[in-house]
Amino acid sequence: MPPPQHAPLPDTRTAEAAPPRAALLFILVTLAIDAMGIGLILPVMPALIREVTGGGLADAALWGGVLATSFAVMQFLFGPTVGSLSDRFGRRPVLLVSLAVMALDYLVMALAGTIWLLLAGRIVGGIAAATQSTATAFIADISPPERKAANFGLVGAAFGAGFVLGPLAGGLLGELGARAPFLAACALAAANLALGWAVLPETVTDRIRRPFRLARANPFGAFRAIGRLPGVGRLLAVFFLYESAFIVYPATWAYFGAERFGWTPATVGVSLAAFGIAFAVVQGGLIRPILRRLGEAGAVRYGLAVNVGVFLFLAFVENGTLALALTPITALGAVVTPALQGMMSRTAAADQQGELQGVVASVRAVAMIVSPLAMTQTFWLFTGPAAPVYLPGAAFLLSSGLMVACGLVLAAGGRGAPPRQA
Predict the structure, then answer these.
(1) Backbone dihedral region of 63: left (phi > 0), alpha (psi from -120 to 50 degrees) or beta?
(2) How confident is the model at residue 58 (pLDDT cuts 50, 70, 90)?
(3) What is the chain's mean pLDDT, rounded?
(4) In the structure, what pLDDT confidence band is assigned to residue 366 with cuts at 50, 70 and 90?
């Protein structure tokens, strides 16, 4: 028989307990910089890989896949560990250490002379990229239950802003050389570290501090612990299916636009920027009236229905101008993630928020590992010379089916949100 565990503490936080605005601003800037750091280096990764390997573009693409997968695998393995560390030692030290490691990691990659050093940098970066899960746990700490989902929307808004600014800045800095964006990302992380040192308070008090247990500080142990919370296992399944479907955008959008509409890289960039802006507007602002009107579970159902329609449209649209004009509309379903996070966070106790967000990060990492392969293979299958039917939007049809699966899994647990743990 397993030893008895301490009873988790109820979540009794109120809006009045929130830290100063400067701290919340730091968290949102951290999330935006996290997204910018990824976007900054994307435009120059092929050139840098070719520089250090001396190979061609095809070889660079192969190594690029290895680097991306290693990053996601590290996030899966270490997300719960870092989340549990933040439950024990606090959000402030974990966030500040993560930012310091990220700054050094970008500097190492800027100076790397071999592909193996770049690979080591991506491995370390994946471990340190716990800023999002720890920052989300911070927001859970300062949010009363009825405002969790809306405040989680700010996470998506900050990420959307970084998603827009990162590639644009990376492309411009890339004109100065393949290593310039890495130096810029290093400087951004270092500047944000200084800001956090000055303004970030600690939200983990002795009342909610949870002992660090190695058995729960790994993805499998953390999944078992979090999965015992009522309804959370089902919501994590919905989250995984949703993230897997949504990855169709970064995985295939550039290839889809070029194949279906003959878009240039500049047009693809404009469409992605339009989507990122709309994504930030929806999660930063429109989500609040949607939540007030529909509630969290209703917002999830609304978002899934919108995404089913959007993906069906993209699967069969043949007019590039129409697709570009309606790109911002496709972000209207982007309320699902913060609403799901709000439902799960309200179920978890105050001393489990870091562990929960670590598990959420691991689930997202698994989706990032398996979904791009499935989406790109689907695109290849229906556009290649042996395609049974020519359908460049086939991956969006697959994503539409995954959204329907999300709805079925959600419906299996009833219409309401899971009860909050006492």
Answers:
(1) alpha
(2) low
(3) 79
(4) confident
CA-CA distance, 169 to 184, in Å (whole number)?
9
Residue 313 has pLDDT above 70, yes or no: yes
Contacts of 134 (CB under 8 A, 6+ apart): 82, 83, 86, 91, 94, 95, 98, 354, 357
Concatenate the DSSP letters of all residues of 380-412 into one string: HHTTSTT-SS--TTHHHHHHHHHHHHHHHHHHT
Give pLDDT, residue 141: 79
Question: Top-level CATH class of 228-415?
Answer: mainly alpha
Question: What class, spelled out in words, does domain 18-196 have in CATH?
Answer: mainly alpha
Residue ranges per structural domain of the chain = 18-196, 228-415
- End-to-end Cα spacing for the chain: 24
Check residues 370 and 145 and name the one with the higher pLDDT: 370
DSSP 273-298: HHHHHHHHHIIIIIHHHHHHHHHHHH
Q: How many CB atoms lie within 10 A of CB 6?
A: 8
d(CA 69, CA 126): 10
Q: List the structure tokens of 232.
A: 């959370």
Same CATH fold assignment for domains 18-196 and 228-415: yes
- The pLDDT score that the predictor gives to residue 287 is 84
How much is the average pLDDT of 195-209? Answer: 78
Residue 82 has pLDDT above 90, yes or no: no
Other CB atoms within 10 Å distance of the CB of residue 262: 9
| CA 275 – CA 143 distance, rounded (Å) | 28
